[in-house]
Write a structure and sequence with these properties.
heterodimer; A: 4-stranded antiparallel sheet; 13 helices; 11 strands; 57% helix; B: alpha/beta; 6-stranded mixed sheet; 4-stranded antiparallel sheet; 7 helices; 10 strands
Chain lengths: 403, 226
């Protein structure tokens, strides 16, 4: 009976093909929007997560002072010294790598070309913390780090701006405004980060050299540390906090005058925001599904009126009210289901298109696809029930007399 | 087999009330061929609709083999029509854009038959009305006579006990009308009770008994044989 009703539904859709297609368009648009919005949202979220992971999801940032809301960094806090880095390196066994990081913006010159970029003072731990390999050359030698020699490692953007494509920068001298340094290494390209910032637009120099030549003091405002695999970030964070409190003579009950931050917190916030946006966009798209459902109800009501005599004939040959109800309900469900399937295909196509065009991770969530299909069929039931009941409640003799 | 006792049918209420049937007493035996005649508005179609369980009487009793039809629910009436009755209408009432085979198969769907058996039985029914070469034709591709044959095949495919025919030749020319009547007569000869409304005397002559209605009452009855 159900199978026959299904075949009958297909026959009716074929009989009024254009009308059926236009009716299903509402559901197609609704489902396609939901699928595309949710998948694109998830893809964007995934891309952000990946980018942040590249920044180092196992990375801790140790900063002097405590952040107290936007723009209210506490003042007059004691900066870190290289000794802090050394003690951390020796004492915290959960750390894989550690490096100070001081940076500023300067103009780099080579021959007749100049380029403004970020200059970062680091030690060799930086390459491990950032998981950044060298494309050519080498990292800093211990003697260079210890004495703060004028050597540097260049990012790909700086090379592109200053050097000819066939020229190797290794062994060349570049000028950092008023002093020169020897290029000893070239970094692998990293590309832009999640926030669109070019990560390759930098020059790395030994921290000692940075302090002596650029900042003019031995203060450190950032220490970066990578936590070993399988070690919970919180554990390492607590160890660092304990040690730094001791080193900075903070008494029990006193607030830290430094902070240890991780990308996970940022990741959580961003994930929360993107999830919220995804839900909101999905909800907006779902409204169009309701509009599509109303379209189906409208057409089904027209169909019931048009087929009144047919309903009478069916009742005369012995169809019960529930047979008629099921038949019209299945027609509505098949119509919305077809709309749902087309919508899913269209939604996936939009997802792929947008993902490629916007260079975000392609995510096709099978659960949302199933939910969308079931939801489209549910819409058929919800909006098909009124027309189906109207048909089922007809009086056979009135239906047969209908002109 | 069929017994009507003082069956009445009213439409409307109060001053606007129309009394279509005013106390019909009628008994139809199994295998009978009964024609109902009468002028327009005499209540013959209303009586046929009540006999066909498409309409319910306002008063009186309707028994079918001692079953009180008035006591049946809407769903039971549908089952009564499904298993006991077959209908032939003046306007054929075939489903448009649906083949003759599918039209004839339709009542079998409600009997819950499997597709293969259903198709077989529908082909047999169409063969019995001489349309075995027209099974794939849609009503629009068939003549009036052929359409009524399809309608008869649809009515007979479930092997009903009673065939209810409302002016079955009303839309046909004389020759086709007599061909249709011969078919109905043949089914009657096989033991099926036929109750038919007609306004044509030569069509009513196929029946073994004719009931004349006037103003909602039986005016007279006549028995005859062809």
């Amino acid at each position: 009976m159900l199978f026959n009703a299904f075949l009958q539904a297909l026959r009716e859709i074929r009989r009024n093909l254009m009308r059926s297609l236009l009716t299903a368009t509402g559901i197609v648009i609704g489902i396609a929007s939901v699928i595309a919005m949710v998948n694109i949202g998830k893809g964007a979220s995934e891309s952000i997560t990946q980018s942040i992971s590249q920044l180092g999801s196992n990375t801790l940032y140790i900063i002097p002072g405590q952040e107290r809301g936007p723009g209210s960094q506490s003042v007059m806090v004691k900066a870190f010294k290289m000794k802090d880095v050394e003690v951390l390196k020796e004492s915290i066994t959960t750390l894989k790598a550690i490096s100070p990081s001081e940076s500023t913006t300067m103009t780099v010159l080579y021959k007749d070309k100049n380029h403004q970029c970020s200059i970062r003072g680091i030690d060799n731990g930086y390459f491990d913390v950032q998981n950044w390999a060298l494309k050519a050359g080498r990292n800093f030698e211990n003697s260079e780090l210890r004495t703060g020699q004028n050597v540097c490692v260049l990012g790909q953007t700086v090379i592109k701006e200053l050097f000819a494509s066939d020229e190797s920068p290794i062994g060349k001298k570049v000028r950092l405004e008023n002093f020169s340094c020897d290029v000893v290494g070239v970094l692998e390209a990293k590309g832009a980060n999640t926030f669109g910032m070019d990560q390759d637009d930098l020059v790395l120099v030994p921290i000692k050299m940075f302090q002596r030549r650029i900042s003019g003091n031995d203060n450190l405002h950032l220490i970066m540390a990578a936590v070993k695999e399988n070690i919970p970030l919180e554990e390492a964070k607590l160890q660092i906090q304990r040690l730094m409190r001791e080193r900075r003579h903070i008494k029990t009950g006193e607030e830290d005058n430094f902070s240890v931050r991780s990308m996970t917190a940022l990741l959580d916030t961003i994930t929360q925001i993107t999830s919220m946006l995804t839900v909101m966009l999905g909800a907006v798209a779902a409204i169009s599904l309701v509009v599509g459902g109303i379209g189906i109800m409208n057409i089904m009501l027209v169909s019931v009126t048009e087929r009144t005599r047919e309903i009478g004939i069916r009742m005369a040959v012995g169809a019960m009210a529930q047979d008629i109800l099921v038949q019209f309900l299945i027609e509505a469900v098949v119509l919305s289901g077809i709309g749902g399937i087309v919508g899913i295909i269209m939604g996936m196509a939009i997802t792929v298109g947008v993902s490629v065009a916007m260079d975000i991770t392609l995510v096709i969530d099978p659960s949302i696809t199933m939910i969308a299909l079931l939801f489209s069929m549910l819409i058929g039931i919800v909006f098909g029930i009124i027309p189906a009941r109207k048909a089922a409640n007809m009086n056979p003799i009135d239906a047969l007399r209908y002109e | 087999m069929i017994r009507l006792e003082k069956v009445t049918k009213f439409y409307g209420r109060g001053e606007g009330e129309t009394r279509v049937l005013k106390g019909i007493d009628l008994e139809i035996k199994s295998g009978e061929f009964v024609a109902i005649m009468g002028p327009s508005g005499s209540g013959k179609s209303t009586l046929l609709n009540i006999l066909g369980a498409l309409d319910v009487p306002s008063g009186g009793n309707y028994y079918f083999s001692d079953t009180d039809i008035r006591a049946l629910t809407k769903e039971q009436l549908a089952l009564f029509r499904r298993y006991i009755l077959g209908f032939v209408f003046q306007g054929f009432n075939l489903l448009k854009k649906t083949s003759a085979l599918e039209n004839v198969e339709m009542p079998l769907i409600y009997l819950g038959m499997k597709a293969k058996a259903r198709k077989q039985q529908a082909i047999e029914a169409l063969t019995s009305v001489g349309l075995e070469d027209r099974i794939a034709y849609e009503p629009g591709q068939l003549s009036g006579g052929q359409q009524q044959r399809v309608a008869i095949a649809r009515a007979m495919v479930t092997h009903p006990k009673v065939l209810i025919a409302d002016e079955p030749t009303g839309n046909l020319d004389t020759k086709r009308g007599h061909e249709i009547m011969q078919l109905i007569k043949n089914f009657n000869a096989e033991g099926i009770t036929v109750i038919m409304v007609t306004h044509e005397k030569d069509i009513a002559a196929y029946a073994s008994r004719t009931i004349y209605l006037r103003d909602g009452m039986i005016e007279k009855e006549s028995n005859h044989a062809v």
